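Agenda item 2: flavin-adenine dinucleotide complex prediction
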Amino acid sequence: MISFELTEEQRMLREMAHDFAANEIVPVAAHYDETAEFPWEIIKKAREVGLINTNIPAEYGGGGLHAFDEILIGEELAWGCTGISTSLLINNLAAIPIIVAGSDEQKRKWLGAMVDGALASYAVTEPGAGSDVAGIQTTARKVGNEYVLNGTKTFISNASVCDFCVVFAYTDKAQRYMGMSCFVVERDREGFTVSKKFDKMGQRASDTAEISLNEVVVPEENRIGPEGAGFLIAMRVFDFSRPGVAAAAVGLARRAMEEAVAYAAEREAFGQPIYKFQAIGHKIADMAMQIEAARLLAWRAAWLIDQGRPNTMFASFAKAFAADMAMKVTTDAVQVFGGYGYMREYPVEKLMRDCKVFQIYEGTSEIQRNIIVRELFKKQ
Ligand SMILES: Cc1cc2nc3c(=O)[nH]c(=O)nc-3n(C[C@H](O)[C@H](O)[C@H](O)COP(=O)(O)OP(=O)(O)OC[C@H]3O[C@@H](n4cnc5c(N)ncnc54)[C@H](O)[C@@H]3O)c2cc1C
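Presented output:
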């Protein structure tokens, strides 16, 4: 039986996240956008109410939420500000490889550290390879029962503020996909430096930086999963993370639509509210339809993973559709606001800037379509 009803618990969770976004995030979002400061204060408050580490299983001290519950929260936090919500949710991303491939001891250690307050980051991308994950150059050389890591990771969210980082590196480059491994690298290891902090178009409350690894030694216990399993772990992480990214794009688009509705009802031209011009009213009707459709795709992709069923294609449907939809919705919201939409004092220009990265990170919109083609033609 299909049901689109949320449980009482899910409704409460969503309401709690919405109230947090409305009371704690919205009032300070413009400040963090302008200054690009890291939102430490919000992180602290979110920790107090349990809005961080939501996907860490309860037995390791986390929220123990399912993917579906997580995306309900994610949509609300993103409605508040996607720069801040990205900062809040990167721990969830970094936790996934440990949850799916770590040993019980590793889970206790690293997930436990996050629950105790550590921030983590997740590092695949390099200056020479983003979409082409197998094209990374970072290496991990085995020396006795340790690994020595060398390489550069770029565009890493929360890199400047993290206590440790989940890093993907080649243990055997000749094996390509099967030669990559996954490691936890602590921030205070010698040779670990944050080499550059980026100034961004949008999501400016999130930290994005480059990490250099120069002869960084980690013990064997820091390897997550078997040697050679790194690429498969990275791909598995996407199945979990992409529904959440889609839900965040939905939250941002919903905010833009709400702003557009309020403005179009109040602003008058030629003696009537502008929503009465069909050209404007239809733009807003399209926003509402597309947001609803994207939410259903995100829900389906998250639901599948909670059922333990393959969701790769649905995660790509959701991620690409929601990101492209949100870009259109935020651009149209600026149009509805006319000249005021272009000004910093009105909220929609920030939403449009914040939105663009949804078509880029966690796999570009082009890469999502490549995945869909691959899945559709698998059996041919
Ligand atoms: C704000 C921000 C935060 C980020 N956070 C993280 C993070 O925390 N951790 C992390 O590891 N990475 C992170 N990234 C990196 C992000 O995942 C990559 O930027 C993204 O995967 C694209 O890689 P790229 O920038 O190297 O672009 P490229 O891969 O060089 O792509 C450039 C263009 O070519 C297109 N293209 C490439 N290959 C194909 C193909 N096969 N078919 C069709 N088109 C193709 C792309 O779609 C894109 O339009 C972040 C990026 C940003 C901007």
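Discussion summary: The radius of gyration is 21 Å.
Owner for follow-up: CH.
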